């Protein structure tokens, strides 16, 4: 299947897939207000809670207060919601790429 070697998919998957995903997430943030709001809420929680940032970003280990655990649960819930939106967008992008590839291979008219 030599035609596959000439597609956008192959180039990105081999060389720049992380960049492709990053670009997609930037577009998603600009085009989806719900996603942008979730990211802002996550960022606000991290900025207001140094210990949360230490646990999640710096992998520090220490006991958390009940309040800190509540904040952590809230953050993880927001993260899960934003990740679900990202996964849906990745799926849609994959379907677009599949359609493009099938058209390029003349399997769709």
SSE topology sketch:
Blueprint (H helix, E strand, L loop, with lengths): L7 H24 L1 H16 L1 H8 L8 H39 L5
Helix pairs in contact: 1-2, 1-4, 2-3, 2-4
Structure, explained:
This protein has 109 residues and is mostly helical. It has one domain (2-104). The protein contains 4 helices and no strands. α1 (8-31) crosses α4 (66-104) and α2 (33-48) runs antiparallel to α4. The longest helix has 39 residues, at 66-104. Mean pLDDT is 86; it is low at 1-6.
Key structural traits:
single chain; 109 residues; mainly alpha; 4 helices; 0% strand; elongated; disordered N terminus
Sheet-strand content, in percent, reads under 5%
* Subunit organisation of the chains: single chain
Mean pLDDT metric: 86
Q: How many whole angstroms does the radius of gyration measure?
A: 19 Å
Total DSSP helices: 4
Beta-strand segment tally: 0
Percentage of helical residues?
A: over 70%
Overall body shape:
elongated
Structural domain count = 1
* Largest sheet data: none
Which class best fits the helix and strand makeup? mainly alpha
Spatial gap, N to C terminus: 19 Å
Query: Which consecutive residue ranges, at least 5 long each, have pLDDT under 50?
Result: 1-6
Q: Give the topology string: H per helix, E per strand.
A: HHHH
